[in-house]
Amino acid sequence: MRTRNKICMSLYGFIILAMCIVACGESKAELEERCMPVLQNILNIQEARDVMRRDFHIMTIDYREGRMSLESWKSEKNIWLSRENALSLEVDSLYDHSYKTGCL
């Protein structure tokens, strides 16, 4: 939990720094208003991916220790992989947008 909080705080700091550097003709308030929604969306997606990854790790442990059948584990793996791929594509698109619009 502490590591995740440190990562989030570091990412917030990086975001604010990047926003300040890029803000040549734009006030800090304007830049924040324009960029914060997409950057917050990135953080939210990354957090969701982290939660899903931890949940799937717990299921993998359950499978290895015999508390979950192979069939159930494979089903959960396919669900996790599908969601992970979708979120990965979404966050990649948001990063691309952020770079193109000067938010990162």
Number of helices: 3
- Overall shape: elongated
Q: Name the beta content range.
A: under 5%
Distance between the termini: 26 Å
Which blocks of ≥5 consecutive residues have pLDDT under 50? none
The biggest beta sheet is recorded as: none
What do these coordinates show?
The chain is mainly alpha-helical. The chain has 3 helices and no strands. The protein has one domain (2-100). Helix 1 (2-22) runs antiparallel to helix 2 (28-64) and helix 2 (28-64) runs antiparallel to helix 3. The mean pLDDT is 87.
What is the topological layout?
Elements: H1 2-22, H2 28-64, H3 70-100
Helix pairs in contact: 1-2, 2-3
In short:
The chain is mostly helical and 104 residues long. The chain has helices spanning 2-22, 28-64, 70-100.
Protein traits:
104 residues; 3 helices; mainly alpha
